[in-house]
Amino acid sequence: MALTADALETISSMVEQASEGRMVQTMGALFTYLEDKQLMWRQRVSPRFVHCHPANRDGYGLNAMDCHSLLRDISACGWNWAQIDAMACEVPGSGPSHDSVLEFNVAQQLGSGGLLPTVEPHTIKLASLSCSHTNMALRLILAEMAHECDSLCLNGRLNLERVRQHDAQLYEASQSGLQWRVISADVMQAVPKLASLVQEAMNAGGQLQRREHELQLARRILNTWREVSAGRTDPVAFAEIRDRVLRSKPPCAPCLPHMYGFLMKWGGGPSGSAMVETESVIKQFGSSTERSLGPDFWDAIGASGPADCKRMCSANLLQPVLHAEGIMQEMRALASTAVNKEAIMQEHGVVLTKKWESHRVTGDEVSTAASSSGQSAGPAPLGCRRMRHYDASGKPAHPDELLLEYGFKVGDWACRKADKVVAVITAAKPDGSIIISINDGLINGSARVSIKSFAAGEWVKHTPKARPQELANHWEHGCLNHPDFQAAVFRGKVMLELDWLIREHKEVPKSLKVVLKPSKAVVSICAFQEGQLVLVPATTRVEVKEGSRGHSAANIPLGKRPDGEKLLWSLAPVTSVPKDSKQGLLDTFWFVQATNDAEAANMAISPDLDGKELATPPGNVTIPLMKNTVSITPGTTLTVFRPKSEKLVELAEILPEAPPKKRKVGKQNGDL
After folding, report:
1. Contact 425, 409 (CB under 8 A)
2. Could you tell me the pTM of the whole model?
3. Which of 272, 302, 601, 633 could form a disulfide with 261 if both were Cys (CB 3.0 to 4.6 A apart)?
4. pLDDT tens-place string over residues 273-287
């Protein structure tokens, strides 16, 4: 349903009420209003088509570690549909809304260190405002990501068959998706403020989900401060944002005053750059919900001591501060261009979780984990290459791994950029040579090239063109031999025959009266001699059903196909009573009362084609007609004989039970 001006005014008013107080109550009423106006509906959607809304958790979004942790919890406790209350909004196929959702989710995936699946632009249909971690847990299963839960994994990766064996309902959820309450894209675009209020209301409701954590609260503080301070020159007081930040009743509410003080000093300015970098690290290597720093920590790192106050009051402070900031900005720019930050951060994240044994062993584990975290085939990033192993002679123990470093593997097609020679990589040798197979005119068969040419970028991956495939005896599969074409021809012949019969007997209905209530009936107005009254089963619907199911009792059989498909053809009634200016569709044939008493009937349908075989290919069509079997006088109600179909019910056999055998007792000692 389109968003009207009245509906928009009502929605905006309720959103303002929710912003001022009683958020959960007002948002509940708003959801009911949206459903009544068909601006919100319920829909089951596959997890791969649902992504995280940029306003989810106040812009913090998903934590990759929390998604894997939630999946472990579900594996241990079992899937329960009753605990799911999923809310999302519709995303247009293109435009700014689609682009913002795409950019937000791509950034989250790139910052997850390979823990989250990739995002395809064409899969963005809904943006989740609640149950985002739950939906991502299901996406992890579909993408078969690396995971630590042995009961769901095979060779260290999630496996659909293992999930099905462990928890059938979890498997079903991963295939069919969650039941979402979906808000129309028109509403979200007209009221941008609605997204943040919806996710706050869902968090405040206390559903089973990842609870609000301190980093989410910090993100909300910065977002609220930017919103309140927009267009103002005077400072924003803490009291102005306190109530708005605490509307969802987060469990870390005692941290708010100290967190606010810290963010105003060290958060990274209006953009919150320091908090953004902190989030990127925690999303890869830490859990947001399983650990709380507490108010004492935030108080300590945000406090200003006597020395700080003294330095702030010193004379000529501005110039040294600006000079120091300039040096830090210059150093940051140099480090960003010269050092692969992502690779070093991944290495440190792996090292900190390893028990140190030796430089060689630890280094090998770090490089192996970092190089295997990529989602696509290609050269390993700088600082993340797998350590090479050499044998006693100094040659590579696994020459295939050298090839993998440059983005190739045995079996790949490669093309040399200089002369466009195309070859297939067949083997990698320990001496540093690559065996290729060429069929390029001048060179045919096996050849040997140096792996240095791959390292120098002389070769690129190649996708061979598909060869033309010839279809033999294609004329045998033409329309004339296809049952669907024959069925279409048969339908056409039926309609042509009906058209001729209807025109031939078009004056007959004018001699009859049709009664709708209290029961359908056809009453004769004129007199008819035996066989003079002819009714045609006029309809627009030709039905075909499997022989095992049979046709409906009201249908008129036309026969069955003689091939192995065992399909029954029949004419089905189509009746539409005229209303106002809408034209109806009525035929007296379908209003004649049926009776299973042959003597009471004055009409009969012939010929009876039930079970008769149709010609192949379709020939002439026979349409059963209804004719009067006796003379009809004016005022006579027409009745047609239709035999009563009796379904045989197979009853279970009743077997008499034999009486229990009596045990014979002989005389005992002392008996007479």
Report:
1. yes
2. 0.41
3. 302
4. 777 777 776 766 566
